[in-house]
Amino acid sequence: MRYTTLGTETGLRVSEFALGTSNFGTKWATGADQAASKQIFDSFAEAGGTFVDTADTYQQGDSEHYLADFLAVDRDHFVVASKFTFGTAGQTGISKTGNSRKTIVRSLEATLTRLGTDYLDLYWAHSPDGVTPLAEITDTLDDLVRGGKILHGGLSNFAAWQVAQAVASARAGGRNPVIATQFEYSLAARDGERDLIPMAESLSIGGLLYSPLGGGLLTGKYRTSAEGRLTTLNSIIQREDTAQKTAVVDAVLAISAETSMPAAVVAIAWLRARNARSRTALVTIIGPRTLDQLGSYLAALDVELSAEQYDRLDAASAPVLGIPHDSATASRNRVLGGTADSFVRPDEHLVAP
Q1: Does residue 338 form part of some domain?
Q2: Is 66 designated active site?
Q3: 337 backbone φψ class: left, alpha, beta (φ>0; ψ -120 to 50)
Q4: How far apart are CA 135 and CA 19, in angstroms?
Q5: Confidence band (pLDDT; 50, 70, 90) for 352?
Q6: Residue 170, CB half-sphere, CA atoms under 13 Å: how many?
Q7: Is residue 122, in this structure, part of any structural domain at all?
Q8: Cα–Cα distances in Å, from 315 out to 143, 206, 270, 324, 350?
Q9: Which of 3, 58, 123, 185 is catalytic?
């Protein structure tokens, strides 16, 4: 397991994989009981994992309850993140959900109680609520940092312009800035390359990437069965509904056959290599439900794809960036003329070709 700081504007040290714990609990349609969750947690820790990501809504609070027992042995060894916005069992409704100051403060109190700790390393707004002003969210997170209840704040599932505004305004006002953003990213969903990843690199904040297997799509299992998230949750999933996604799954399965590695390992190995090419810290959130699933994620730590294999997957999954990115590329070529392919900016040596 490699380690990094969560962006270059903070010294918060995290493992390159974060353990997502939405499967810790049995109150949803799928999940792991406490004993199975403990095995997953312990195995992750034994592999060197230190970063744990949960939310008050996961398994109606069970995820945080389970983690209280798991973390009690050495709480300060782990970087613990949780989220607010959607509430949990008995805490839903107009006054107990969303991103208002009231909701944030009360949600944090409940989360700290369930986790059996007096602070969080990172506290996320889980999603925009469409109502609360961005300044209210960041000001409240700043107050919680100053009060010692959390060490850092983050924004999950927010647009790049919202995150950029939050970071810039906080820095300009001398407040504790948002240090990271969280969004879906995988070979099946590289939309983050349009704005989110460039924004994170530009502002030197961290990025946490969830659903690295596209909800199971990249394992190829949905070609032979609907078992999994497709039947249990019917959410947070990429479907094989475009020609490009079919080409991506074909490429993953082809390399899997060539290397005798599971398709999941191939997909995570590509993502790990892609993260290493970023100019800021990109951390992959893995969310295993079983020890076998955890083993597939961890196996990717020892896999190096060949340049040809990486490029094949990269080409098959390349996103269409659209406007204004396409026109910006055309403008660069027009301005630089025949030197466009050989012209390198001073900072571009940091990124592998």
Answers
A1: no
A2: no
A3: left
A4: 30
A5: very low
A6: 26
A7: yes
A8: 45, 25, 12, 21, 21
A9: 58
